[in-house]
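Course assignment 3, question 2. Fill in each field.
Student: A.L.
Task: Predict the tertiary structure for the chain below.
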Amino acid sequence: MKGKRASKVSTKMKITPENIFYHELIGLNLVVLRHLDPSLEGVKGKVLYETKYTIKVWDGTKEKTILKSGARFLFYLQDGRGAIVDGEKIVGAPEERAKKYIRGHI
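Answer field:
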């Protein structure tokens, strides 16, 4: 239409417990429920950065690096709900996980 500006439609999906595997985790709060390294169990904080194999968390005093594999996490979503996630399901960069989702491999 002439003279009218098209409204932008958000294509960003809301993070839910069902689709968390396909999203970037940066900014979410988490608790490490279980880990192969028992010293990491109970770590709480905000996700600062995510690599293929690790999550960097700020616990309020320092940054901790946590291996995804061998862990179980509780992520707090923006709407206040929690999502329990096995670390093996989130190994890989977010864009790789999204590609797997599109291909139906997760």
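Instructor remarks: The two ends are 42 Å apart (CA to CA). The mean pLDDT is 85.
Grade: pending
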